[in-house]
Amino acid sequence: MDRRGILAGMAALTLARPALAQGTWPDRPIRWIVPFPPGGSTDLWARLMAEPMAAELGQPIVIDNRGGAGGLIGTEAAARSTPDGHTMLFTITTHVTSPVVLRRFPYDPVNDFAPIGKLGVTPLVLCASPSTQGNTVQEFVAWARGKDLSYGSYAPGSSGHAYGQMFSDEARLNMTHVAYRGEGPMLQDMLAGNVACAFHSMAASGGAIRSRRIRPLALSGTRRLPSLPEVPLMEEAGFSKRFAFSGFIGLLAPARTPQPIVDRTADLFRRVVENPATQRRLLEIDTIPDWLGPAAFREDIARCLREWEVIATELNLFVQG
């Protein structure tokens, strides 16, 4: 074969590789970046979904916890990863809230990703630490007023951070924000009595609530939890409608991931979310299943981004990253 024929053959082989990679995907372990440390709710949801999906795909799904900067570090790594379906991002609402509040956009929350699917939503629970008093939000406020206290959040710029500030402002309390690198560390510090209160997900804090080591006072969102029927919504307790902001839990791939891979992953993700066993487990950890496919999930992410820009501006929630 002459040189021209060799070069033509090499070019044809190069062009064939993406199609071959798509056809055989996955041909090695898949990495899901979770932009928070182990032990928090995001980590728990990711592992709940990864196991049945890995069994179906025939390759392990490895959870890569990369906490820091309100989720920005792990999310930026996912955005810059090779878009071949072997690296994805399992994340939550901080995907849009952190860059807005930190005023750092190392990634575009909408355009740098190919959404796979939305798992659902979960309210956050305002919990009081064992170092405080009051079994209702009104009793806690009465005890806390006039004291120098602190509230925790699982990341600066997160909805938990915003809710804590809104609660402190609307209840006229003097509370300082303490940011953690994930819910796990925040919960441990709260159990030790080092922060007075925090907005937790039930996925991470349910065990501590059920064992009465921390006290649930009120809920964000618009619907009470079946497992905490006596705990009111923040709005029912006299606070503003801002506490009804609704975020997301879901899976994304880097932009330019081949469409066949996105479609196959989305179909599998949907089937796992809609599986009765998964639905039961999600409800057990107070997560409300709310599947959205790729296109609808993209719109939902864009909606969250718009709404959060308004909330951040109203609260002057901007912080240094």
From TrEMBL:
<keyword id="KW-0732">Signal</keyword>
<dbReference type="InterPro" id="IPR042100">
    <property type="entry name" value="Bug_dom1"/>
</dbReference>
<dbReference type="InterPro" id="IPR005064">
    <property type="entry name" value="BUG"/>
</dbReference>
<feature type="signal peptide">
    <location>
        <begin position="1"/>
        <end position="21"/>
    </location>
</feature>
<comment type="similarity">
    <text>Belongs to the UPF0065 (bug) family.</text>
</comment>
<protein>
    <submittedName>
        <fullName>Tripartite tricarboxylate transporter substrate binding protein</fullName>
    </submittedName>
</protein>
<dbReference type="Pfam" id="PF03401">
    <property type="entry name" value="TctC"/>
</dbReference>
